[in-house]
Design goal:
- By secondary structure, the protein is mainly alpha-helical.
- Helix content is 80%, strand content 0%.
- Helix 6 packs across helix 7 (204-218) and helix 6 (177-198) crosses helix 8 (221-239).
- It is elongated.
Amino acid sequence: MTEPGASPEDPWVKVEYAYSDNSLDPESTHKGSVVSRANSIGSTSASSVPNTDDEDSDYQQESYKESYKDRRRRAHTQAEQKRRDAIKRGYDDLQTIVPTCQQQDFSIGSQKLSKAIVLQKTIDYIQFLHKEKKKQEEEVSTLRKDVTALKIMKVNYEQIVKAHQDNPHEGEDQVSDQVKFNVFQGIMDSLFQSFNASISVASFQELSACVFSWIEEHCEPQTLREIVIGVLHQLKNQLY
């Protein structure tokens, strides 16, 4: 409300009116501006301060990733080293086992044998062992056959000895060795006569052809039987 006698256009009246209004209290207005300014500064400061929790989380994740990569790299390196050590031990064992690897090769001097040479010498030695094994198996097979033949001969001789013990006087009237020789000589003489008459020695080819022809003609079972019968008759007439 304006005082009587004061004009509404009086500037002092406007100022008083403004100060008399509760909403335009200078102290409250000043406080409000201060609080507003403080809030603005606080929000600006808060926005300008970095978020340390997010940075720590990112740093931990990066550290975990790096440590995981390091562990994988370290495990891979250790596995590779174990593989290399195993291969080296294998080559060292081959050089120790294979005799030809221990022999000095004058072509390479005193240099260490390369892996390729060690493998080649190992292959050659294995092939040599296979050949020796096959040769020994053949020898064993031959010896087994000999043992079997000796066992058969042993049984036969035992039977002969037993038969002689059971009949000690048997065989006293047997034919002598001289008679056996005369029979064999008579057979050979008859065969040689036909052989000498049929064989030509002009060339080796002709000799071979004549031999086969003589065998087919004069060595047939029936022909040999007739020769043996004739020799035995002749020998019987001489003895009796």
